[in-house]
Amino acid sequence: xxxxxxxxxxxxxxxxxxxxxxxxxxxxxxxxxxxxxxxxxxxxxxxxxxxxxxxxxxxxxxxxxxxxxxxxxxxxxxxxxxxxxxxxxxxxxxxxxxxxxxxxxxxxxxxxxx
Amino acid sequence: xxxxxxxxxxxxxxxxxxxxxxxxxxxxxxxxxxxxxxxxxxxxxxxxxxxxxxxxxxxxxxxxxxxxxxxxxxxxxxxxxxxxxxxxxxxxxxxxxxxxxxxxxxxxxxxxxx
Lengths: 114, 114
Prior knowledge:
Chain A has 114 residues and is mainly beta. Chain A has strands at 5-7, 10-13, 19-24, 31-38, 42-50, 53-57, 64-68, 74-78, 87-94, 104-105, 109-113.
């Protein structure tokens, strides 16, 4: 099976712009989670989607949003970008999203905000 | 406050030597604890998962231990190889119904020198 794919791999934006990141989970996986990884904060949970519904949400402002499509592919959107949004954004998929299920991570999208 | 603390922040050892990475957590309630390996430029890959009733779990040269009473976990790497150079992240899951259910440590950066 193909692994989790994320596009684009690298992105450069300026403050105030918005950005959309895409994630394709492993075939058959219905849960997709998004994470932000920065050197100072480590990995932080953004949100989880399951069957097109947001099931869990981390402590991020409303500028961060996402959605999941019927084929389980997911997109994450960040509006009004700030310098502090520069990070590696990771997507992970799992079969059911329950805590016992292993999460499989994609390679990430490196976002740089200038 | 739910936290996961890892030590050391970084570690350099010679190829062939053993090492132990530490993880202390104050997360409650607790569901399970995972150790991930993250190579530079890639997403994390799960090494081990343990519930509160498990004391040890092995995956090849990687052995994780868990003491649920003291809320400490360790990851022991035996006969290190150059490919072990990576960041190792300790992750604690809270029960599924909890928001922001996943708590990540900031990781230990391990470098193996020939």
